[in-house]
Task: structure prediction
Amino acid sequence: MPLVTTHEIVDSARRAGGGAVAFNVITLEHAEAIVAGAEQANAPVILQISQNAVRFHQSRLEPIAAATAAVARAAEVPVSLHLDHIDDDALLRRAADGHFSSVMYDASALDYNANVAATKAAAEWAHDNGLWVEAELGEVGGKGGAHAPGVRTRPDEARAFVAATGVDALAVAVGSSHAMTSRIARLDHALIGELRAAVPVPLVLHGSSGVADDELVRAVAGGLVKINIGTALNIAFTGAVREYLVADPTVVDPRKYIDPGREAMTATVAQILSLLHNIGARG
Result:
């Protein structure tokens, strides 16, 4: 199936009242697992490669992007590619070389005025090059201290920010935190409703791995559209690999333990997509 755009997936989910789920790709096995899980759930999916993942691949974007795109094009469900958490303008510009239909430009560590200026410039360039743009306002916790836990996105600032920058989607701080390994985050659902009323573009939740199922369902029903998942896949993969290696400490063929890791990620993706994709249809 040809790649679709992130805009198509997000817009369709928004109109249907469901969630458009974006999963982080670190290795080829992540991409394979995500697509297999989406096929099991019969749901569209967004594959996102972060700036940190590109750095892991020795700052070479093209190999992991090309491999991920190849997996996506072989999928039996709609799949898009998204470049996530970019603050490097040079990397941003490489997104237009192919594969990607969208980027998340992250200037949220800057003060409000500097965030507006940097995001506006990035959005103008991205739109000129056919890319859908997500940005962040408020500081989602985690990421090694790059964001301040506890900070929330203000509806009045969110409205002004979107108008000033022209972005297509907005990631908001409503109680989640990046890189959580336990699902104990509690979201501010009243704030989600206020932001939905204040902002004309789709709202995005980062740090969703730390949010329990019932909280995610309530958040999507309340107005969040794009839901980002990363750490949950890594927990599933690492747990399965660790279990295999403990059971057979003599194994040396990585295929033996990577395969159950990939299967564990597939199951996680299918479960999350089944939970969030058709919320609107379930009423």
